[in-house]
Amino acid sequence: AQSVTQPDIHITVSEGASLELRCNYSYGATPYLFWYVQSPGQGLQLLLKYFSGDTLVQGIKGFEAEFKRSQSSFNLRKPSVHWSDAAEYFCAVGVPGGGGNKLTFGTGTQLKVEL
Amino acid sequence: DVKVTQSSRYLVKRTGEKVFLECVQDMDHENMFWYRQDPGLGLRLIYFSYDVKMKEKGDIPEGYSVSREKKERFSLILESASTNQTSMYLCASRVTGPHYGYTFGSGTRLTVV
Question: Which helix (H) or strand (E) holds B32?
């Protein structure tokens, strides 16, 4: 079964600074990979996803993520953080194919932005 | 865009009550999911359904059941609510094929007192 690790529970960055949120997964082949963001009291919004092809993926709100097979990682990055980026971020892994396979989430990283 | 609607944003129920959480999607998706979200634990899958009247247990099904009588509606049922089921519940639907992806509802925050 697949699993996801987000090693950082909380991260604090200054507005305008760069950001990298870490995500490591465990799966025997290349999974589908996702990053979601959740603002307080809200549902999950998809930032970006990776299925195959170019390992650098561009998403919404200026975010990008890079798939590194050798490291089983899919880290999320943003060159310059805005105060509105303060939220909780979830990495998730899905198994390719349809049917009953599911999305498995990491435990999340809470991002705080200092003005 | 796909819309996933959860009927209640906030619910307060008493211990022992039977609780229904409703989820409706508007895009004829076959696959629907119920997750529970708790601080420090992320989202954990309770049940999922890949077609009408079809259901499978997720990682934490104990104390829950589900119903899928129509394709667009997936209900989560707490047969006898307990305080340890106080949580945020998120519903999702999934499209397969070239546009593979999940869409989540806004969540229902359930408090059992």
Answer: strand B31-38
The rounded distance, in Å, linking the Cα atoms of A11 and B94 is 30
Domain that holds residue B43: 4-112
Q: Does A42 touch chain B (CB under 8 A)?
A: yes
User: In sequence order, which residues have a C-beta less than 8 Å from that of residue A87 and are 6 or more positions away?
Assistant: A37, A38, A39, A40, A111
Q: Residue ranges of the domains in chain A?
A: 3-114
Q: Going by DSSP bridges, is the β-strand pair B101-104/B4-6 parallel, antiparallel, or unpaired? A: unpaired
- CA of A106 to nearest chain B CA: how many angstroms apart? 6
Tens digit of each residue's pLDDT (9 = 90 or more) over A24-81 = 999 877 788 999 999 987 889 999 999 888 999 999 999 999 999 999 999 999 999 9
Q: How far is it, in rounded angstroms, from Cα B24 to Cα B83?
A: 26
B49-77: pLDDT as tens digits: 988 989 999 999 999 999 999 999 999 99
- Class level of CATH domain A3-114: mainly beta
Nearest Cα residue to A89 out of A13, A1, A2: A13
Domains: count for chain B: 1
Picking from B43, B58, B96, the nearest residue to A90 by CB comes out as B43
Alpha-carbon gap, residue A101 to A92, rounded angstroms? 13
- The C-alpha atoms of residue B25 and residue A4 are separated, in whole angstroms, by 27
Q: Name the nearest CA neighbour of A112 among A6, A9, A36, A10.
A: A10
The amino acid at residue A60 is I
Domain harbouring B106, CATH code: 2.60.40.10
Amino acid residing at B28: D
